[in-house]
């Protein structure tokens, strides 16, 4: 199978067009050649090197590292070191240190059938400069979808990339589009928000402008958001397969089942992704804080420095909700993401896990004591 990355240039110039620079070069092991992962298969990857595309099997070293920690598994966008074997094929010897990485928390089924984090993440894309958060216009006004935008933007900030919200299928939401964009901008302060209609050819070049030669973007969003259609429009060709929208709800039936690195005409690269049904926070530090900078600013005026905005006297955040200056939905979303980020951190930190257990023991003890004292 051929690589999805085109082969119009050669040598260092070709690698530079794929995002290669001196920082990656300094980490390259001796006796190896660099390549960028365009697509991953089971135990192997399609990569783009200076001399063109290759299919490279993982080395034993890479397989061992991935078995110990799934985050070490090669992913689309990674720069890797290839070693030429005696039989003339390349082997993927190592994954070079990632400049940025978009990681979602591990999710699995617990013994009761519910969803639970497993404390291990999955890298969706690596070495990404821009994260396009795609949301279809006809669904972006729902509270749940504004929450999804907040979640993905938080993860985008955490990845090290720059988030950009793209409201797709804008032609299906002519009335009130400026108000919609204002609501989305309020849910993602400090983030560029653009409306795009591929059908009308509106906004595509604006989005394309974020990707000069050598820069990489990933497109994230739910199934039916028009991600592959947007990628095709930026590429000027059908590089990703799409289907017609479903009757009744106007949403697309997303057919992408893998992540793939696409080179755009004139430079720039983009990674399309399958629709995301659920994405958990992983190793979150300040991504949530950046999305909810307005709440942090209000919190500085709270009476207590450790105010949890949950009924304490003199809480400026609750006062803003009561006055209508802060949407109640937004505070509820902040609560949810803060709890999830703290819980995921506890899954990967033994000290925090012990502290969480101690607190819950105290809470349960107080509950039992209260129940015994009831008449």
TrEMBL record:
Localization annotation: Cytoplasm
UniProt binding sites for Zn(2+): 302, 307, 309, 315
CP-type G domain sequence ranges: 116-279
GO molecular function terms noted in the UniProt entry: GTP binding; GTPase activity; metal ion binding; rRNA binding
Matches recorded under Pfam families: RsgA_GTPase
InterPro entries the UniProt entry points to: G_CP_dom (IPR030378), P-loop_NTPase (IPR027417), Ribosome_biogen_GTPase_RsgA (IPR004881), RsgA_GTPase_dom (IPR010914)
Principal place of residence: cytoplasm
Cofactor requirement: Zn(2+)
EC number(s) from the headed UniProt entry: 3.6.1.-
Record key words, sorted: Cytoplasm, GTP-binding, Hydrolase, Metal-binding, Nucleotide-binding, Ribosome biogenesis, RNA-binding, rRNA-binding, Zinc
Textual note on the cofactor: Binds 1 zinc ion per subunit.
Record-stated family: Belongs to the TRAFAC class YlqF/YawG GTPase family. RsgA subfamily.
Function: One of several proteins that assist in the late maturation steps of the functional core of the 30S ribosomal subunit. Helps release RbfA from mature subunits. May play a role in the assembly of ribosomal proteins into the subunit. Circularly permuted GTPase that catalyzes slow GTP hydrolysis, GTPase activity is stimulated by the 30S ribosomal subunit.
NCBIfam families the record matches: ribosome small subunit-dependent GTPase A (TIGR00157)
Name of the protein in question: Small ribosomal subunit biogenesis GTPase RsgA
Lineage, highest ranks first: Bacteria, Bacillati, Actinomycetota, Actinomycetes, Streptosporangiales
